[in-house]
Batch of 2 targets.
Target 1
Amino acid sequence: MRKLAGSILCFAAVLIAGPHTASAMTIEKIVSPAGIEAWLVREKAVPLITLNYAFHGGATQDEADKSGTANLTADMLDEGAGDLDGKAFHERLENHAIEMGFQVGRDYLHGSLRALNEHRDEAFDLLRLALTSPRFDADALERVRGQELATLQRDTTNPNDLASRRWWQTAFPDHPYGRETKGTLESMARISADDLRTYVRRVFARNELKVSIVGDVDAKTAGELIDRVFAKLPEKNDLKPVANATPSGLGRRIVIDVDVPQAVVTFGGQGIARNDPDFMAAYIVNHILGGGSFSSRLYREVREKRGLAYGVSDSLVWFKRAAVVLGGTATRADRTADALAVIEEEVKRMAKDGPTPDELAAAKSFLKGSYALTLDTSAKIGAQLTQIQIDNLGIDYIQRRGTLIDAVTIEDARRVARRLYSGGLLVTVAGRPKGLTSSGTTE
Amino acid sequence: MLANKRVIVLALVSALSTPALAAEPAGPEIADFTLANGLELVVIPDHRAPVVTHMIWYKVGAADETPGKSGLAHFLEHLMFKGTAKNPTGKFSQVVARIGGQENAFTSQDYTGYFQRVPSDQLKTVMEFEADRMTGLQLTDDVVLPERNVILEEQNQRVGNNPSARLTEQVDAALFLNHPYGKPVIGWRHEMEELSRDDAIGFYRRFYAPNNAVVVIAGDIDPAQARALAEDTYGKVARHGAIAPRIRPQEPPPVAVRSLTLADPRVEIPSMQREYLVPSFKTAKRGESEALEVLSHILGSGSNSRLYRALVVDKQVAVMASAWYDSSAIDQSKFGVQGSPRPGVALPQLEAEVDAVIAQVIAKGVTDEELERTKTRLIADAVYAQDNQASMARWYGASLTTGATVNDVLHWPDRIRAVTADQVRDAARQWLDKRRSVTGYLIKDVSPQAEKRS
């Protein structure tokens, strides 16, 4: 079962931190003949190549009444390109066991490509076609739209989706971050093939492209492969600016009625920017509160001591223009109020006293030691390197991370705990929680 | 949108992906040996990162529960984190966290597994803890009773809140007339509510022992080192005198086409799920399980599959259609087909189109192109799996606890390569007989009672 917070959080919550593999892995910065920068890790152990990349401009680029445009575009990129219709394109992928994926977040469109060495050229050629000449054929578009509509229709009674969606709408009204990446039933019906073409034209460009390659290739070959995919893209993207935002509705509780045996809770508040000097302290403090799966305060108090839920956790989530701390749980309807009271009490206690020195030491030890586990496959390495580039942390970040963690003092942790958890929580609950009603000011 | 493989495995906390049955370790030398006390070890070296995945798989699952105690194997899995005389509650998890490890556990019908992913110099630490709790578990009601509430909430989260999971439970229960595979791994609520400390300890004493387990270690370790560490830790646990063989009540020959309908007020998009009773790798004749694997891909994996092309693209009666096969089971297993209709299409119409696609494969077989494409994909999966030490460990663990050997896993790609078009057609003809199946419809409950239900 998916951990609850996992289904609520978006991609930005990747755990980025720490060293350990520094000696085992060398990252090279390369520049392709056409001038595109990429990070390369040479890995010969397994005969495959992995490409990860990201274009700035995700769902924030959707028109307000056409949310879901970026997401629908991503769905359509492997549904036909160049001379190949969707069927032919999929056959080419499958005949060579090529894995091509696209994922839309709020700020970025992420892509991944994986192929056996023997099918490398075919894989990169197909990706070029997908990114530079997607067809968006009418029949394929209607089919994929139908699938998206079915998902959205199903979501209308899904408590996880209801709680999450309302949280974001309330936290970021009238801002792109408040809109669902997958759109709504109404918006999905409005999107045309031209909207998809417009999105591609504005977002798929070279200037803010981040690229990582892991595989058995040298720098020269890697540069050629990168150019084969990306060199023909426009020099510069054409993005709509996104305003800075802070979450609103803190202190409110909203109950959404849906007939399910278990109430689903989303809670969260103001977070911390990735480039804030206090970020690492906040990351550690939040790990202690609700990040570590078996060792966090929330896990201990809500699950282990009281048996109120199967899962409870929270994470830092950061974007380019906003940051939140966001968590969730799911509890039986007659004990939802108890679970929520425990969570609110733990958040307050952390804001007031911060972690203990022992907790801080244990969390530091975990965050340093566990980093190697996030870098033990080509796919994970590629995704991490791309995120490090997006967060602008520098190519030496993996080496520096341990020092950054060690530098956090107990005073830092207490100060940052106060800063992070004093602002109050916005809570949304989907279900029929006994004795719990909406409260707080409404706009 | 195309889920094509479903194995019911419950995790202690978060998601564990399905053990993908595919991967020829052409590179690493895999070691397989057994200690004097009967514990089998498999070591899969991968020195790319200084980490190891350490898993212990017990050959016991939900299908080994006493009737009336459904959910017990999984409940015990949760309780295994509650401490021993030597290491009180929480100590193991604290140590794993302090060394930067990850841990979790999972339960299926046939196995129960526990794992830690840790820096490779900490392997011995986790082996010591795991060996200690193999026979040293201590339980009191103080920890057992809150944990029972946790599994009840887990049941709500997985099943109660999820209409399509409720349908799967009903289809499974109808498919198995006699075999315990018809009970959900999570359990039936009325039985879960009564599970006790004594039930858990009794089950533990019957099944948890070195001679009823397989340890799989993948990552930055050599077999000789792993063996020395294992002798030092697990090697000291005494063999269990009497592990009963896993003989479960078997299915009678299926003779009736079965169908059922579940109405739930939260259903917005209706759907159908069908399951056929088919052989697992363990129970199949040579080559039959592999043919079913290939058949499930050709029928329902990806957007060039038969079901997707016919139902979603050409006839446009479905928004989704797929098929899956689960080869890893001690006893007979399942082949599944599922779909969701487009708005305005009734479920019987969708089902008729599914039947037509299956009838076509039975009558005419599959094309060479389909066969080649599917084999390429499956054999490539074996290479992709080598990129992930945890996937490799899961693949071996799931295989070895469901009746396969290391050699079977190593030669899986060869056996896939050998599948012929005739074998695929024959598998469809023999096993996709509707009398072997249950078809479940999931529809919206619009009755007044549904509105008032609280």
Target 2
Amino acid sequence: MSASLLRERFLPHFGNPTLDRLGDAAVVDVRAGRLAISTDTFVVQPLEFPGGNIGTLAVHGTVNDLAMMGARPRYLTAGFVLEEGLALDVLDRILAEMSRAAAEAGVVVITGDTKVVERGKADGVFINTTGVGELEPTFAPSPERARTGDAVLVSGPIGRHGIAVMTVREGLAFEAELESDTANLYPLVEALREAAGEAVHVLRDPTRGGVASALNEIASAAQVGVMLEETALPVPGPVSAACEMLGFDPLYVANEGILVAFVEGAAAPAALAALRGHPLGSEAAIIGTVVRDHPGLVALRTAIGGTRVVDMLPGDQLPRIC
Amino acid sequence: MKYLSEYRDGKIARRLAAEIRRTASRRWVLMEVCGGQTHTIVKQGIDELLDGAVEMIHGPGCPVCVTPLEQIDRALHLASQPNVIFTSFGDMLRVPGSHADLFQVRARGGDVRIVYSPLDALALAQRHPDRDVVFFAVGFETTAPANAMAVWRAHQLGVTNFSVLVSHVTVPPAMTAILESSDNRVQGFLAAGHVCTVMGWTEYEPIAARYHVPIVVTGFEPVDILEGMLMAVKQLEEGRGEVENQYVRSVQRDGNRPAQELVAKVFALVDRQWRGIGTIPASGLGLREEFAAHDAERKFGAAEITATEPAECRAGDVLRGKMKPHECPAFGTSCKPEHPLGAPMVSSEGACAAYYNYGRFRGAVTSG
């Protein structure tokens, strides 16, 4: 890794007083109290997709993990593994997106690292980000806090990221262009906290494995049952069309810009209104409730009035034969 | 979504279910032939709306499920060859062979790729003239035309590095085998709408007449299936055994003639082994002699590989409707989607997968 690459490519995007010192470690101020810290490594193909690129995900993914704990994201570290031969204009676009997403989320990239490996030893670029966030003293959503009577909310339409990426990766052309929903979710968390406070029991960003996997993890952690209403699920037309074609269930398709919230029944209308009051949450919906029956299991009432289990999948969904 | 949401309408579905309950003077036993229909029935909870007026037996129409173990082993063998790019539809990759599945072969360095169409596999062969591209051609009459087209084009264009591992089967011989069996309980069929889109329904007319059994060509959405059931129940109540068409928006009596002609040009009827069922005479499609150069079994000598299906997997009983998936002793214990004994537990059209993934809730409620 040459110093010139760092100076010419990275610093112009991320420059800030802490980073510009280029010390061995970043030194930052934090508010008194507890911190949330999360790390994630991003290895996606394609590197660029409609609505963002790996850089956008590297910021939103980590920032959202902090936000789901109720923490306000403050700082980010960034580590890059670059494969020799990665086009510089691609790298520039990735860094520009990271910088834009970080600024928009109000986080500062305080330290970083880059390594270049031989061709074939990596897939374009891998990015690791670690985030530091500040916790509010009285706001601690957590999966095991789900309770019977909670309403289950999603903040927006489901399945957009997974289908957008799949469209590019597999070279599929659908009539309607679909963009990834990748977004910083902290503003929605703030809105929920202000509207419903401690009545917000659980927050989760349903990324890989989709809404179904997130709900299963929560049902299992709290040993409660979840009953969904199929007719209440916000599935965009292009997502449902693509899923029909491939034999996928939108409940298992990845999202990068929505959250699932479990909110005490009485506070649910206020929570829903708060989500809908933000542009990111304008299509928020109550999709189900927490029930006493079938603890640990997620079930769904179908549009025609039947019921079925919404299970964990043992692996990725596979396109079917016919 | 247009042309789809109408067929998932809860009100219409419940009205049809009520009419079936009113019409049935006794509990009739129907078989839905296609695994896609099985999944709709279990996934949407159609059985719950019927209150026992009809017993649905799940048929053999899951192409992944009926592909015999030895054909999977041949696929694994081909996929392990150093110069081969092995291409397949996604749902074959998790199907267990005797010792591994295609995912594991890929993890060990085999070049296994998911394609969405056999023509994509052909294009891959054209892009990689130095590699051998093999496509796993499984399926019923639904996928046969596209697979025939790929072989036909490879032949026309002289793409010699493209071959297919064929495991095609056809529906009517399987229906006849079920009706001929001494302990058959099936009184009427919902025929597979997509198969009939290609083939039409003329070949079902002699079956309906000979066994005096209602056969209703049926679609895949809840309203389709309930309407198909109602048509079959009405026939049974009136003592009729005819072919009727519920799936009018897709199927015509003669089917798709150009597709049939192409299939006939490339494939010929052959005896074919079905998983758990055994060999059914003239029940499959094999490549005609003039396309032998594109036959992966011959090209790589894979036909010598044979396998014995594990006794613990009762896939044959499930595929013939003799056993419901949850009645199998291995169901949910030694056989789960994470470690399946047989294909029906992992295929997106498999009855065992449908019962496991969607139906356990009801099982728990009724038994508990």
